[in-house]
Amino acid sequence: STPISPAEIPFETAQLSPMARSFYGENKRVANQAIKAAGYRFRFPTYRVALERMWAEGNWRDGAPRSPMRG
């Protein structure tokens, strides 16, 4: 069976805490040239690809976040 992605919810109507709304409401752009120049290779080319993989594999966990730098 193929997993079905959840429907996208418009930001304006999403039920978010004030802190989450503030965090997601800001546009943050970062450059990753320095980390790439140091030889780091990203597992996924974009966050969307990473989320799609996590959704497809059911790879969602509760608990403390894991750092991708620690493996």
Account of the 3D structure:
By secondary structure, the chain is mostly helical. It has a domain at 11-57. It contains three helices and no strands. The protein has helices at 18-25, 33-37, 47-57. The protein is flat, with a radius of gyration of 15 Å.
Number of DSSP strand runs: 0
The fraction of residues assigned to DSSP E strands is under 5%
Radius of gyration: 15 Å
Outline the biggest β-sheet. Answer: none
Tally of helical runs: 3
- Fraction of residues in H or I helices: 25-40%
Global shape: flat
Contiguous low-pLDDT stretches (5 residues minimum) are: none
Mean pLDDT over all positions: 80
Structural class: mainly alpha
End-to-end CA span? 30 Å
SSE ordering = HHH
Describe the structure in brief.
The chain contains three helices and no strands.
Write the layout of secondary structure elements.
Blueprint lengths: L17 H8 L7 H5 L9 H11 L14
Give me some keywords for this one.
71 residues, mainly alpha, 0% strand
